[in-house]
Design goal:
Elements: E1 9-10, H1 14-19, H2 24-41, E2 46-48, E3 52-55, E4 58-61, E5 68-71, E6 74-78, E7 83-87, H3 95-101, E8 105-107, E9 110-113, H4 121-140
Antiparallel strand pairs: 1-2, 2-3, 3-6, 4-5, 6-7, 7-9, 8-9
Length: 142
């Protein structure tokens, strides 16, 4: 039997969460990303678990693990070491844009940046917009 996901959408305040970020530059970067994602998705942000800000939702079913549930389409999390931006269905679909971003690391659906000033924000907006639209289309086809 598949285990239930611990990270779920909840009603915690996104703004209150972001105000707890001690590093001023990281907090400002998060506010910029929040504004950027609101504009791109035209959706209200929601907390997922205690540390992820997510936009939109889609339902997934994994053939491999038999797990299914709801997940955010795009989002971000201010981790201790970096800012994590979630790009669904995975950053490999957007290699050209990622290569144009600047200083970042990737893994599966995560884009890791240290500071927003390390990347080209025009390219970041295009990446988030392209990935968001793709996931909306994919989730509407099911």
């Amino acid at each position: 039997m598949a285990t239930e996901l611990k990270t779920k959408k909840n009603d915690a305040s996104v703004e209150a969460f972001l105000q707890t970020i001690e590093n001023e530059e990281k907090r400002k970067d998060c506010m910029t990303i929040l504004s950027m994602m609101k504009k791109i998705t035209r959706e209200e942000p929601k907390m997922w678990g205690s540390s992820i800000v997510g936009f939109g939702t889609y339902h997934y079913k994994s053939e491999r693990s038999k797990r299914e549930g709801d997940w955010f389409i795009t989002g971000f999390s201010p981790r201790k070491q970096n800012l994590t931006i979630y790009i669904m269905p995975g950053v490999d679909y957007y290699k050209e844009l990622v290569q144009q971003l600047g200083k970042c690391k990737t893994s599966v659906s995560c884009l890791y940046i240290n500071k927003l000033k390390d990347v080209d924000t025009v390219v970041l907006k295009e990446l988030i917009n392209t990935a968001y639209k793709r996931m909306k289309e994919m989730s509407n086809q099911k």
